[in-house]
TrEMBL record:
Record-level Gene Ontology MF annotations: octopamine receptor activity
Family listed: Belongs to the G-protein coupled receptor 1 family.
Highest taxon in the source lineage: Eukaryota
Annotated Pfam families: 7tm_1 (PF00001)
Bilayer topology: Multi-pass membrane protein
TM spans (from-to): 43-75, 87-110, 130-147, 168-189, 223-241, 315-336, 348-373
Localization per Swiss-Prot or TrEMBL: Cell membrane
InterPro entries per the UniProt record, alphabetical: GPCR_Rhodpsn, Octopmn_rcpt
Protein name per its UniProtKB record: Octopamine receptor beta-2R
An annotated GO BP: adenylate cyclase-activating adrenergic receptor signaling pathway
Main location class: membrane
Keywords, in A-Z order: Cell membrane, G-protein coupled receptor, Glycoprotein, Membrane, Receptor, Transducer, Transmembrane, Transmembrane helix
GO cellular component assignments: plasma membrane
Amino acid sequence: MNEFMKITDQKTRNTSEIIEGNFTDHITNSSVTDPFNPWPSHSWLLCFMVALKTLIMVFIIIAALFGNLLVIVSVMRHRKLRVITNYFVVSLALADMLVAIWAMCFNFSVEVSGGRWIFGYFMCDVWNSLDVYFSTASILHLCCISVDRYYAIVQPLDYPLIMTNVRLVFMLAVVWFSPALLSFLPIFMEWYTTAEHLEFRRRNPHICSFTVNRTYSVISSSVSFWVPGMVMIFMYYRIYVEADRQERMLYRSKVAAALLNKHLQINGISAGLTSLRQSVDEGLVTDDKAAAAEAVATDPGSSSKMKRERKAARTLGIIVSAFLACWLPFFLWYVISALCGYRLCYSPPWVVTLVFWVGYFNSALNPLIYAYFNREFRVAFTKTLQSCCHFSSQLVCRKYSLRREPPMTCSNASSELHGNNLLRAEAIVQRFNNLSEQEFINLRQNEAVI
């Protein structure tokens, strides 16, 4: 009887572990087929949704790879873009590319295989570590860009002294090395999860789930999102306030200088102080806009600089808004699920997939924001794409010329033929110049006979 009770209890524990494992997999970055799915496996609607999901994921991966590669190549090719801020942008593009390569591609393989992990137990830890590492690095880069823009606009005179090359290297080193303490160390030391989940993973190596405990969820989300997000919001608010204040002060100073200049001109033309005061009173209200335009025309350097700073602040605000829109749903789900428990706060598999890939979409969105809202990047992107198209057309033309006969090639045969004709013409002219008068007469007679 005792043996029967032990066997029954063991079967019950195994069954509960399997159920817990399947349930755990629902709320992770693996997508196991939902047993409560109302669609049958042969449903055309299910096939359409799977195809649509696959196309969207492939599009996000390709956009993240080629968009960020375009940012890196454009900054390398154009000297005008080689400023301190854009070094952060290049480093951000590299981090986003690595997110696409390591995090998105592995997640895509799990999604298309129905939630089955085919790379083994060790690579599951590698994937989870790289996912946390590169996503955190991308978010910290955005935080560094906001801090850099803050000093550039709020303290423009001290900016060259604050943002030196040494500080730039130090900030990039912190951004790239600090996420390792949050990803590789706790994951490989098995501090991030519970003992039940580790046992479940050992029993089911074909399922790569990332279930965290409450302590790790609070610490990792704070370092990866909440603290950098608050810093970015505060920096952007200060940048907006300071840029607006500088613009108003610049406008007032230019208007005052333009009005003073105009009043002095009126004083030189008029007969006395009375006419000057009358002209000032009459023109003070009506000529503010004209004076401001005249002031902008007389000092284009400061106005263009202010426009650039305003554009930078606007671009930063758009980046921060996109960052919050992409990552806020994921970290809300991440923290709430860990704190209240995965059984109590159950999330369907499609919700988990959605919050993961909306967060990944931020890595593909940053190059689009730079291309659309920054004129210098837009011009650099256009030139880089034109160069790539020209280079690819030359390769196609060269391959085409190798398949054709030499007279029909796409090479410089026409230019060479034209050059040979010019050489022949010069030789003929030189020959005629060397002929004597009698030889020239004999040659003409021979041509007439012919």
